[in-house]
Amino acid sequence: MSASLELHGVSKSYGKVPVLQSLDLSVQEGEFVCLLGPSGCGKTTLLRIIAGLLFPTTGQIDIVGREVTALTPSERNIAMVFQSYALYPHKTVWENIAFPLRMRAPWTTRIPFFGRLLSERRELESVLKREVPAVAQALGLEKLLTRKPYELSGGQKQRVALARALVRNPDLFLMDEPLSNLDAKLRTETRREIVNLHARTGKTFIYVTHDQVEAMTMAHRIVLLYEGKVQQIGAPLALYDDPENLFTATFIGTPTINQLQFTVRPGQVPLLEGVPWESPSAQKVADALAPGVYTLGIRPESLVPQSDRSPDAFAVTTDYCEEMGSETIVWCRTGLGKRTLCLRLSRMNDRYVGSITAVAPDWTKLLIFDAEGRRVRLSSEANAAGVFNVELRRAA
Question: For 262-299, how does the pLDDT look when each residue is reduced to its tens digit (9 = 90+)?
């Protein structure tokens, strides 16, 4: 499979302020890639550089094997859907969809009166009569073609913007938070439409969002950015289950991952939030680690209610519960530095709600990070002791 987009050492700075730092990325033909990260991380800047609306300070951009670093947007054969719909209010839906094709046609087709007599104009009209209804039907807009934008709902406007991009048959679809102006229900429906559109067209999509739910449910791969640097690239569940650093672990997942300070002391009982933790499993973990301070990352579903007598448990007090229907989110106070922990319980286990007095981590899913936030993986010796099933290495 050939690459639709390749970025080589792309950086962007404004004066002495770096926005993107030496970014490399290869996107294969037909992939759906999400650029994800908090506000200010550089994801929209990167999308605009790919589109040609901004030029990189350093680096090279290739689209379908052709270098486009210095080319204008019109020379790159890309289509972009913005956060605002950017529809022409005085044009009908039909004319909004047709506009990109009109602009790509020879300028002579736009000459008033006399342009209608030219063969290029007749050829253009034939293309419009064929392509516009086809794209409108694909997005369920065939009954709205005579309406103006002010007569449309937010979701319909977004579909018109998608249709206008699709009709150009571009090499790349670029989308800059296109669902941020929609309500929750409409966002879910439009998200499904975009995924179906991608499946039908087989085109390459680059999608910018700060909403991890959008990225997790839509993308083949996620590019997670923070402070202009790539933190991790991978499949959605890979970032959730196997984060390379503490930022990835905390950014991916709702509610966010629980964090507990774990101190390894030579020849002594390890400390959990500064309190001795006389847990057999915790001691096995400590024996596999070098002395120092670590962060234990525990997903809400990986904290399991226990009896007070469980050797690996620590005491908690239930603070409050959030009934979500299919699951219950329970917030507890540990007494370990007044730390608050979050548990996710299924309806099968919600009998524990209100009576949780102790919890323990699911040791097979515990995540460990060093003082710099890098992932630490336990060794095969620890695996033999029955603690983990992963190998020891430090993330680069």
Answer: 999 998 999 998 889 888 999 999 999 999 999 999 99
Tokens representing residue 29 in the block = 């033909």
Domain boundary among 241, 275, 310: 241
Q: Residue 371 CB: number of other CB atoms within 10 A?
A: 9
Residue 235 structural domain = 3-241
Is the same domain home to 158 and 263? Answer: no
Which residues neighbour 194 within 8 Å (Cβ) at sequence distance 6 or greater?
162, 175, 178, 205, 207, 218
Report the distance separating Cα 383 and Cα 390, nearest Å.
7
CB atoms within 10 A of CB 87: 21
Residue 394: inside a domain: no
Residue 61 has pLDDT above 90, yes or no: yes
Is residue 390, in this structure, part of any structural domain at all?
A: no
Flag whether the pTM goes above 0.90.
Answer: no
Whether 214 and 298 share a structural domain: no
**Residue from 253, 222, 221 nearest 240 by CA:** 253
Helix 154-166 with 119-138: angle, nearest 10 deg: 130
